[in-house]
């Protein structure tokens, strides 16, 4: 699909140099997914602190009344047990520098 856009020459030059792109098409092709991913992460971050909750809700009281947890307890499968063993032993852990890094590594 051919589109004509006006792009600031200085920004275009800097972007081409930063990413060692050969041409504008390859630059736009690599920049658009990054832009979309970043915007999606920002939308997720905007949700922080927006969930309403009932300050009077007491999950412990509910648990005591029903004599059960407010969710079904499922015995972990073999894969989950292996993951628990690995993480307890400090193996196969993924570390993130910050929220942006986490979103990027998770593909969000």
What does this entry look like structurally?
This protein is mainly alpha-helical and 108 residues long. It contains 5 helices and no strands. The model has no long low-confidence stretch (mean pLDDT 85).
Write the SSE topology.
Blueprint: H1 9-18, H2 24-46, H3 59-66, H4 78-88, H5 99-106
Short descriptors:
single chain, 108 residues, mainly alpha, 56% helix, elongated
Radius of gyration computed on alpha carbons: 23 Å
Strand composition percent? under 5%
Count helical runs. 5
Query: What sequence of helices (H) and strands (E) makes up the elements?
Result: HHHHH
By DSSP, the count of extended strands is 0
Instruction: Summarize the main sheet.
Output: none
Question: Summary?
Answer:
This protein is an all-alpha fold.
